[in-house]
Amino acid sequence: MSTVSDDVPYPDATLHLGVFFQGVNHWTIWTQPESGSQIDFTSFRRMITTAERGLFDAFFLGEGLRLREAGGRIHDLDIAGRPDAITQLAALTGLTSRIGLVATQNTTYNEPADLARRLSSLDVLSGGRAGWNVVTTDNAWTGENFRRGGFLDHADRYVRAEQFLHVARAMWDAWDDDAVATSAEAASWSRPGGVVPVRARTSQFAVDVTPVLPRSEQGHPVIFQAGDSAAGRDFAARNAEVIFSAHGGDFDDALAFATDIRSRLRAVGRPADDIRILPGTSIVLGDTESEAEEKRRWITSEQVTGATALNIASQIWGIDLTDRDPDGPLPEEAPVVAERTGAMGSRRWDDQVALVQRWRDVAAEQKLSLRETAAALEPQRGHTGTPASLADRFARFVRHGAVDGFNVSPIFTPDGLDDIVDRLVPELQERGVYPTEYRGTTLREHLGLRDPLTRRG
Amino acid sequence: MPTDRPLHLAVELDGDGAHPAAWRRARHAPDRLLTAARVERVVRNAEHAGFTLATFEDSLAPPSRGADLAGRIGAVERAAFVAPLTSVIAVAPVVSTTYTEPFHVASQLASLDFAAAGRAGWVVATSDDASVAAALGRPAVTDPDGLRREARDAVTVNRALWDSWEDDAAIRDVATGRYLDVDKLHYVDFVGETYSVKGPAIVPRPPQGQLVVLAADGLLPPDLVDVTLVDEPTVDDVGAAARRAATPRVFAEVEVVLDTADGDAVDRLSTLDAHTPWPAAQRLRHIGSAAGLVALLTDLARVVDGVRLHVAVLDEDLPELSARVVPRCCAPGS
């Protein structure tokens, strides 16, 4: 176990946990008796109640704007179907009292006057517990479900997102704190001049709107962001308050990412601790290390079925391999580099040729079948160990500034958080690296964040 | 068409009541209106009173441009928030069709139906206010034909999306590794005059299959509507409109100002009107006793299936409805 020394740069740091529910991907196992409904309201209620019992900062919902497709057909191997995030979080508001409610919402197929109001509604109803995970889409395939169709160039996706945020923040700042009368004897419900209309003319937007909601207890919804490209990281450095990163498995990788983000923050004049970095991860616990490893192996085999392995390989090779033998060798063909439509969602293979070579190297080195190779290269390996060993590991991550916490993706619905809350959280608390009560009532308070970027003196 | 069943009672719960100056008589300070506690309390009161349905008015534009309410929590979010906090009352937000994205609206309403365990409806609306177009940076649709076209297309797309997953599309077939049976999922392939939508929905089929769709008389083709909302000034006119409406149910819109312990209805209304006049719409308005309202509703029960009440001041009129109207209401001919 690590001890506090001069080498530990953040000896008092504590871990923040969020839960990401529910992925439409092969990481959530649906084949087991304990795999409950992904859509029934009771599953969401059960999951968020467990997370709040475990003092999680945030309950985090993804967004779907089109069902994923593979080879021109709706992808049928993974869980599919989920609720609209803000609507679902509004419904969960009255069943919880502290936990943050984070909605993933797209800036391409929404308009700021509408989305900023819906986020305000959630923020006001929840007493300042709302968060917004800002995502961008540029593919025309998703656009087929919307009035404008695909209209945005890839290069403009962050331009639009940034302009969108600018308008949203202006709307959230439109009401003076004392705009509304405190007595029915007042001359008017709101003070004349207390609400300032928002007008914006940018390359993406023409907006004239009089916002209809005051700020919540936390000022603005907390801004989450997940982009990993250089443009995405710079966007986060200018705008985000939490980064939902993909760098939380390996300590050195996580630290390198965090260091990079801190330097980008300083470059735009923000304090280096102005962002919380919460990588996505899965967590598998066992009574012993070997039991945990055994459980992880079983989980991976359930996640990467033969059919799923062939589907992943088909995406990477760019050709239909679904009739191959998953327990046989890798295909001998060279990959066909194809235009990505976005039909398999946000998972990206930026360099197919390099990735295929990596598969070949791993398969040859370890003498693996196609399915075993797919399992070995799973990007979501996550953390595996005993509650005590993982508590030690997470304490090291957070006290060295590699992460501020994790966004946990449960492997099972709706009970996938139970052992994390019941067994890992107490170990973390024992080490003084996890709170024993909520710090406040708002998401911003839980995360220890400063005022919104436009609300600082 | 009306049957011998009791009249369905719906109530609109926006703001502090239907009268623009209602906030001056609310039992809370103005700055406590836009809170979860207030939203929850009013809906619970309506549920305890025995109403069938609560509706929530909405617009992107402020509720008033004058001295009255400047704020409003989104109707879908209010309905979703109260859905799991209630158990029998149905909840139906007003959602406009003029500029909104039908795909988003279908997801929001289907999600609401899941949260409400099958108690959700949709009051279909249009946005004829040019400020809504300006908020969204869109060319204004102001002609009645254009507004009806957008409403028709949006409801058509919503209904198609709600049906785009068959009820048993998630098969969870362990033997073949398939979570979905893709033959039970359907592209909607809607192509209208102003946009197209591919589908299928991202939300599985909601508990009711189709949400209950309520719309003003004449806004939509009747086959898209479950409940027509009739705005007419007399019971006879309501009856004539109800006979014309070819929808499964017809509700009459009724404005209500009741005698209360604080003052009789006429005085209450004149006090409120002195602050801000409440223009009489082309709809029934009852100003007077609870007994008089019961008599009016009993008359209406002969010609419609239900009513939607727009009460002047929620904090004053809702308790009267609860105590003296709903318990006595209203079988036809009683």
TrEMBL record, chain A:
<keyword id="KW-0503">Monooxygenase</keyword>
<dbReference type="GO" id="GO:0004497">
    <property type="term" value="F:monooxygenase activity"/>
</dbReference>
<feature type="binding site">
    <location>
        <position position="154"/>
    </location>
    <ligand>
        <name>FMN</name>
    </ligand>
</feature>
<protein>
    <submittedName>
        <fullName>FMN-dependent oxidoreductase, nitrilotriacetate monooxygenase family</fullName>
    </submittedName>
</protein>
<dbReference type="InterPro" id="IPR011251">
    <property type="entry name" value="Luciferase-like_dom"/>
</dbReference>
<dbReference type="InterPro" id="IPR051260">
    <property type="entry name" value="Diverse_substr_monoxygenases"/>
</dbReference>
<dbReference type="GO" id="GO:0016705">
    <property type="term" value="F:oxidoreductase activity, acting on paired donors, with incorporation or reduction of molecular oxygen"/>
</dbReference>
<feature type="binding site">
    <location>
        <position position="104"/>
    </location>
    <ligand>
        <name>FMN</name>
    </ligand>
</feature>
<dbReference type="InterPro" id="IPR036661">
    <property type="entry name" value="Luciferase-like_sf"/>
</dbReference>
<feature type="binding site">
    <location>
        <position position="158"/>
    </location>
    <ligand>
        <name>FMN</name>
    </ligand>
</feature>
<dbReference type="Pfam" id="PF00296">
    <property type="entry name" value="Bac_luciferase"/>
</dbReference>
<keyword id="KW-0288">FMN</keyword>
<keyword id="KW-0560">Oxidoreductase</keyword>
<comment type="similarity">
    <text>Belongs to the NtaA/SnaA/DszA monooxygenase family.</text>
</comment>
<feature type="binding site">
    <location>
        <position position="229"/>
    </location>
    <ligand>
        <name>FMN</name>
    </ligand>
</feature>
<feature type="domain" description="Luciferase-like">
    <location>
        <begin position="33"/>
        <end position="402"/>
    </location>
</feature>
<keyword id="KW-0285">Flavoprotein</keyword>
<dbReference type="InterPro" id="IPR016215">
    <property type="entry name" value="NTA_MOA"/>
</dbReference>
UniProtKB/TrEMBL annotation, chain B:
<keyword id="KW-0503">Monooxygenase</keyword>
<dbReference type="InterPro" id="IPR036661">
    <property type="entry name" value="Luciferase-like_sf"/>
</dbReference>
<keyword id="KW-0560">Oxidoreductase</keyword>
<keyword id="KW-0288">FMN</keyword>
<dbReference type="InterPro" id="IPR051260">
    <property type="entry name" value="Diverse_substr_monoxygenases"/>
</dbReference>
<feature type="domain" description="Luciferase-like">
    <location>
        <begin position="34"/>
        <end position="216"/>
    </location>
</feature>
<dbReference type="InterPro" id="IPR011251">
    <property type="entry name" value="Luciferase-like_dom"/>
</dbReference>
<protein>
    <submittedName>
        <fullName>Oxygenase</fullName>
    </submittedName>
</protein>
<dbReference type="GO" id="GO:0004497">
    <property type="term" value="F:monooxygenase activity"/>
</dbReference>
<dbReference type="GO" id="GO:0016705">
    <property type="term" value="F:oxidoreductase activity, acting on paired donors, with incorporation or reduction of molecular oxygen"/>
</dbReference>
<dbReference type="Pfam" id="PF00296">
    <property type="entry name" value="Bac_luciferase"/>
</dbReference>
<keyword id="KW-0285">Flavoprotein</keyword>
